[in-house]
Amino acid sequence: MFSFFRRKKTDDAVQPAKPSTLSAEDLAAAFPKAPAEATPQVDISEAFAPPVVEAPVAEPVVIEVAPVAAPAVLEEALPTTVIAEAVIEAPVALQAAVEIIEAAPAPQAEAQPEVAAPVPAPAVAEVIPAPPAQSDDALIPANAAPAAASGKLGWRERLRNSTFARSFGGLFSRNPKLDDDLLDEIETALITADVGVPATTALIEDLRKRMKSREFADANALLAALRADLIALLQPVSKPLVIDTNAKPFVILTVGVNGVGKTTTIGKLAKRFKDDGHSLMLAAGDTFRAAAVAQLQIWGERNGVAVVAQGQNADAASVAFDALQAGKARGTSVLIADTAGRLHTQTGLMNELSKIRRVLGKIDDTAPHEVLMVIDGTTGQNALSQLRQFHAAAGVTGLVVTKLDGTAKGGVVFALAREFGIPIRFAGIGERPEDLRMFDPEAFVDALLPQALGSQGT
C-alpha cells in the first residue's frame, strides 16, 4: 500500500547544476586575450602605508560676515594683525578664522572726526618788499643799456635812430640844391615824423618866404633856419616842474593810457625827488593791473619811500584819499599818486579820474597840484586825441614823453607843443632812472637835426 501512494520521481526533475570545470586551454580558446599591457606593480608597503595628505598652499580666507550693527568692511573692523593671522594653513584654516572672528569684537561704525571747513583769511593789503639785490632785476631789463651820457651827447646817442633823425640825415647828407624840391622833401619828412600837418605847413611856408627873399645862401643855411624854428616852437613848453614847498604834501597825479610807462615813470621821479632832498610818499592807485602795486612797492623800497596801497581792485580814489591823509600827518613834501591805464575813449573810466580829483579836493582844495600825463613817444598823432580827452577829464598841467629812444618818430612833441601849449616836464630817453631827463628843447632838436648834418651827415 505504501508503495501505491508513493510518488514516483520523474526523469524530468530539475537537477542542480554542477559546476563545470574547464581547463585553461579551453578558456584560452574561447576567449582570446588582448595585447598584453604593462601591469603596474603595486608596492605592498605603499598600499598599506597611511595616506599622506599634502597641505594646500596658504591662501587668504575670505569670509563673509553678516552685518551686526551697520554694514562694515572686515578689513576696517579687524586690525591688520588679526587679518594676517587668518591666513593659515589648511585643514585648520577655517577653524582658526572662525575662532579669530569670535574673539574679535563686533564691528562698529567708527565716528569720523568732523573736519571744519577752512575759514578764508581776511583780505589784508600786504607789502612784500623785494630784496635790494633783486630790485634792479625786477625793475630794469637785464639787457638795458647803460645810462646815457650827460648833456647833448646823451640825447644825440639815444635819438639818432629815430625816424625823424634818419629822414633828415639822408636828405641833407646829399648836399641838396636850395630849391622848391628841397622844401617839398622837408615837408614830406616832417609829416612822416608825426610833426603833423598844421605844424608842418606853418614851418614850410615860413621857410619858403625866406628862401624867396634870398635869406639862405645854401641848403645848410636853410637847415640852420629850420633848427631855429623847431627850437622856437618848443621853447614855450619847456618849463621844468617846480615843487611848492608850502604845500604839504605837493600832490602829483599821474594819468595816461595803458602801457605808456606811468608806474616806471613814478619810480624814476621818486629817485629824482629823493636825490633833491624831498621827503616822498607814493600811492599805489593802479589797482587794476595785477603787478602794478608790487612794482610800485619795489620802487618804493629801492628809493626808501613809503608806499600806501590797499591791494588789487581797491577804489583808486580811496587809495589817493588815504595817502593824502597820511602825507599830511607825516609832513611829507611830495606825494605821487598812480592811476590805472585807461583808454581815452571810455567815458566811464575817464570819469573816475574826475572822481579822484574831487576826493583829493575834500582834504586839500588845491590838490592835486600837478596832473602829469605820460605819453608814449611812439604813439604818433593818436597822442593828440589822448591828451585832448585826458585834459578835459582831469585838467592836465604837465607832460612826460617816454620811449623817445629807439625807433620813436619824435615829431609828435612838436605837434603837442603847437596845439596845446602844455609844459613838457620830462622826456624818457632810456630805461635807467637817470635816463628820465628834464626836457631840453635845444638838446632835443640837436639830436634830431645836428648842426653839422649838411656837411658831415649822421
TrEMBL record:
InterPro entries: AAA+_ATPase, P-loop_NTPase, Signal_recog_particl_SRP54_hlx, SR_rcpt_FtsY, SRP54_GTPase_dom, SRP54_N_sf
Chain ranges of the SRP54-type proteins GTP-binding domain: 423-436
Cell location: Cell membrane; Cytoplasm
UniProt keyword terms in alphabetical order: Cell cycle, Cell division, Cell membrane, Cytoplasm, GTP-binding, Hydrolase, Membrane, Nucleotide-binding, Receptor
Signal peptide (residue range): none
Example GO BP: cell division
Gene Ontology cellular-component terms listed: cytoplasm; plasma membrane
Domain of life according to the entry: Bacteria
PROSITE patterns membership: SRP54
Chief localization: membrane
Reactions listed under catalytic activity: GTP + H2O = GDP + phosphate + H(+)
Gene3D superfamilies reported for this sequence: P-loop containing nucleotide triphosphate hydrolases, Signal recognition particle SRP54, nucleotide-binding domain
Enzyme class: hydrolase
Entry binding sites for GTP: 256-263, 338-342, 402-405
Lipid bilayer topology: Peripheral membrane protein
EC number assigned by the record: 3.6.5.4
GO molecular function terms noted in the UniProt entry: GTP binding; GTPase activity; signal recognition particle binding
Protein family according to the UniProt entry: Belongs to the GTP-binding SRP family. FtsY subfamily.
Functional summary from the UniProt entry: Involved in targeting and insertion of nascent membrane proteins into the cytoplasmic membrane. Acts as a receptor for the complex formed by the signal recognition particle (SRP) and the ribosome-nascent chain (RNC). Interaction with SRP-RNC leads to the transfer of the RNC complex to the Sec translocase for insertion into the membrane, the hydrolysis of GTP by both Ffh and FtsY, and the dissociation of the SRP-FtsY complex into the individual components.
PANTHER family noted in UniProt: SIGNAL RECOGNITION PARTICLE RECEPTOR SUBUNIT ALPHA (PTHR43134:SF1)
HAMAP family given in the database record: FtsY
NCBIfam families in the record: ftsY
Complex and partners: Part of the signal recognition particle protein translocation system, which is composed of SRP and FtsY. SRP is a ribonucleoprotein composed of Ffh and a 4.5S RNA molecule.
Protein name (record): Signal recognition particle receptor FtsY
Name of the coding gene: ftsY
